[in-house]
Amino acid sequence: MTDAQRVQHIKNGKPFNRADIIVYTVLAVVVALVMILVFGGGSGEYVTVTTGSGSKTYPLSKNAVINVESHLTVIIEDGKVCVRDADCPDKICERSGKISRSGSMIACLPNGIVITVTKESKDDLIDVGMKCPLSSARYLISGRADI
Q1: Strand 54-59's sheet: what is its strand order?
Q2: Rounded Cα–Cα distance for residues 60 and 108 (Å)
Q3: How many whole angstroms separate alpha carbon 86 and alpha carbon 49?
Q4: Whole-structure pTM over 0.90, yes or no?
Q5: pLDDT at 63
Q6: DSSP 72-138
């Protein structure tokens, strides 16, 4: 078989045979299942707000408005969390939308603030509407907190 005949045979042949299609389908299903297991972490129960000065955790089940170091406002509402009124130039954190799944996060990189949804609390829980167990000992009034 000459080179020209080989080229013509490749052009006229099918790109995949049945075995190739089966292998690629099984591989795609396995990758999809792994991604669901790794990234599909169910509903979260807590919101952790991490800044350069530390982190604080809030229950996702209670509505709250949290002013984070006068840089942005974190809104916890109906089991979801979002960012509003950020003073960063690009506003990517605001455009991240509402998150509620465990492992989801919103980051405001210019201000060094990360908001993460988790299934369990690793910090002292701040109960919205109760006395705040922080060094500043502020009181949370009507579901509003300042960090």
Answers
A1: 54-59, 46-51, 113-118, 105-108
A2: 20
A3: 14
A4: no
A5: 93
A6: EEEEEETTEEEEES--SSS-HHHHT--B-BTT-EEEEGGGTEEEEEESS--S-B--TTSB--STT-P
